[in-house]
Description:
The protein contains ten helices and no strands. It has helices at 7-29, 36-43, 47-53, 57-79, 87-101, 106-119, 121-145, 156-176, 183-200, 205-221. Helix content is 77%, strand content 0%. It is mostly helical. The protein starts with 6 loop residues before the first helix and ends with a helix.
Amino acid sequence: MTRSLTRKEKQERTRSSLLRSAAKLICRKGIGEASVDEIASDAGYTKGAFYANFKSKEEMFLVMLDEAYAAELDRLEAHLPGDQHVEEVRQSAEDFMQFVRSDPEWPRLYFEFVVYAARNPDFREELATRNRAMRERIAEVIRRWTADLGEPPFPFEDIAMMLFSLADGFLVQQLVEPDVDESLYATMNETLFKGIVASGLDLDMENLAEVQEAKARKAGAGR
């Protein structure tokens, strides 16, 4: 015998359906053209059901962001628990790309929010507040993860901003050029962290590059 859903379970199902329909329609039509009526209808509900769950489209957008950011933080904290090394950054970056691809609509959806925020000051402040909170959490994860590497030459918050910007920039480029190799993102992250570690050790990067080139020439001559 099938168990009847509780009131809370029904509400959660309605809410999830509305969010899925909103994501689909926003990606297809844009934020401005995806109306509350269309979102509710696509999900199989009335406009009243929408407003029973969200005060406005803007509130729904922020719910989407909160859920996506929470999931990414869970993933990041699981992969960088505090006892890893720089080499693990590559694996974490590769896992991030898999995480993004698990919801193919997310990059387009996120940048729809960014464009909308650029034109709406109130929503921009809400988005900025969430981005700052996200970076603070990322900075704390990095602080724990790099505890055995010593103090980096940059504030942890700046490193979090670098990572944030790398992800945004790479995902934008993939929207423009879908055939960009995803492995490049992992290389970018690995290179960033190796550079940070090298800077912390006060290495002469120009001299280091010369040493690497000399090693490569020597290896080539030995073949």
